[in-house]
Amino acid sequence: MQGNDACAEGAIAAGCRFFAGYPITPSSEVAEQMARKLPKVGGTFIQMEDEIASMAAIIGGAWTGVRSMTATSGPGFSLMMENIGYAAFTETPCVIINIQRGGPSTGQPTMAAQGDMLQARFGSHGDYSVIALAPSTVQELFDLTVKGFNLADRFRVPAFLMSDEIIGHLRERVEFPDEVECIPPKPIREGMLPFEPEDDLVPGFTPFGKGHRVHVTGLTHNEKGYPASTDPDLHEKLVMRLVEKVERARHEIADYDIVNPDAEIVFISYGAPTRAVRQAFLDAPEKSYGHLNLRIVWPFPEDLLKKFKNARVFLVPEMNLGQIAREIQRHVDQPVIPIPRLGGELHIPAYLLKCAEEQE
Amino acid sequence: MKYDVLFSGFGGQGIILSAVVLGRAAAMYDGKYAVQSQSYGPEARGGASSSTVIISDDPIQYPKVLEPTVYVIMSEAGFQKFGAGAPKSALMLIDSGLVQSRPQCRCIEIPATMKAKEVLGKPIVANIVMLGALVSVTGIVGFEAMEKAVLDSVPKGTEELNIRALELGQDIAQKGGDA
């Protein structure tokens, strides 16, 4: 099965029943599959006029209590940014699939990239926090789509599936579980206000029409949800909470693989380049390099870096100019060397080995 | 055992479908691992299109083919773009009616489009003829696995035609091809 199809299957399995999107290469198969499958399970598919409207529609869908999703690639992702900020600020759980292609601008429609990783974290204005997942197999496109819905609901945030053209269009064997775990958001507890946080800093979520009067606004709001945009302390407290509710869970929700934690030379990767690193390790079994593969990139789980106690250097192959390498460097004293590859092709394993050998 | 197979031809010949069918036969019906990817761009609309499949007894990490070991070439433009640099150790099956050039490596000539038209009256199944020949020459997957994968992938009402195309390819290859 093709990666993009597996993503749509994951969404349906996770109970997604609303998709609004605008087709764009190389993500269009996600929309195609959702258009085919949603009507058969009582869901709704809308092809919207553009990407910002798609985001607006899924925010509306989420507030009716339906798991909602859109899919796009870089140019559409840029257009979604305003409403992604709205989703973050209104604490609307939703899932955005980004099958990344070469940018900037319309760039390389048919070629892979990972150039939107910082945009996923910081693309909309103001401070907020989100969750970003990165699959490196077709199976993970299924599994992490399901996980994305659960995390979006748990933290009431937009969750991004940051895949790329290589994995999105790859065909390989996928195994669907008979049942997937779907954890809905916790409802507003008796006596609590709609934006009043619980101990985990996440307010209960009760959709429209289910017994609570809720006012939803992109203006700075109090716990009732009413605008209160000139109160400096309230604004600071709210924004800090929106960031903190995700960031403080970053080690608990971390999803990763570690190979050879005693190594001195350590690769860190996510998405398609992970497969180039794994191939390099197979090609050179005599070498004992370390590897950290991240399936959740944001929030960034920096404690994992400390597991490599003997690390002298971190090598970070990415299909961008070192976006996550920059994040890693913030957390460690050792040198972090980006191994960028632009143009759409995956890193060659032999080249990765050469980069590592230069550090020996 | 690991095969890196590259299919090339012009858009519309079913180059990508061929790779999907081969991958499906291996992964679903032959207990092997397979990953398939394709050149994906404007060339898929008439220029030289290509598609690759890796088939292996072991899990496959790197999803792209860096150097094919088996080529299936169905157009001269496809040969020039993807097949001309094939190493001597490779094996190439060509649609000999459509590809004028010949590689340095071992080459099996299968007049697939011509025979599909002559014998079956449908040149459109030439890609399936090539698959039949490929299975016969290489044994990458079993013939039965290939049959099942073809039946999964072709439109309703064309099953018999496609199975005959598969058998035709096998037949031509068993006779040593056109060479």
UniProtKB/TrEMBL annotation, chain A:
Any one biological process term the GO annotation gives: organic acid metabolic process
Superkingdom of the source species: Archaea
Pyruvate:ferredoxin oxidoreductase core domain: residues covered: 263-347
EC class of the enzyme, as a word: oxidoreductase
Alphabetized GO MF terms: 2-oxoglutarate synthase activity
UniProt domain Pyruvate flavodoxin/ferredoxin oxidoreductase pyrimidine binding: residue ranges: 9-240
Enzyme Commission number(s) of this protein: 1.2.7.3
InterPro entries, per the entry: PFOR_II, Pyruvate:ferred/Flavod_OxRd, Pyrv_Fd/Flavodoxin_OxRdtase_N, THDP-binding, Transketo_C/PFOR_II
Keywords: Oxidoreductase
Reaction it catalyzes: 2 oxidized [2Fe-2S]-[ferredoxin] + 2-oxoglutarate + CoA = succinyl-CoA + 2 reduced [2Fe-2S]-[ferredoxin] + CO2 + H(+)
Subunit-level organization: Heterotetramer of the KorA, KorB, KorC and KorD subunits.
Protein name stated in the entry: 2-oxoglutarate synthase subunit KorA
UniProtKB/TrEMBL annotation, chain B:
Keyword Chloroplast in record: no
InterPro entries: 2-oxoglutarate_synth_KorC, PorC_KorC, Pyrv/ketoisovalerate_OxRed_cat, Pyrv_flavodox_OxRed_cen
Residue span(s) of domain Pyruvate/ketoisovalerate oxidoreductase catalytic: 11-169
Keyword line: Membrane, Oxidoreductase, Transmembrane, Transmembrane helix
Pfam families named in the record: POR
GO molecular function: oxidoreductase activity
SUPFAM superfamilies recorded: Pyruvate-ferredoxin oxidoreductase, PFOR, domain III
Oxidoreductase is among the record's keywords: yes
Transmembrane segments: 6-27, 124-143
Protein name: 2-oxoacid:ferredoxin oxidoreductase subunit gamma
Source lineage: Archaea, Methanobacteriati, Methanobacteriota, Stenosarchaea group, Methanomicrobia
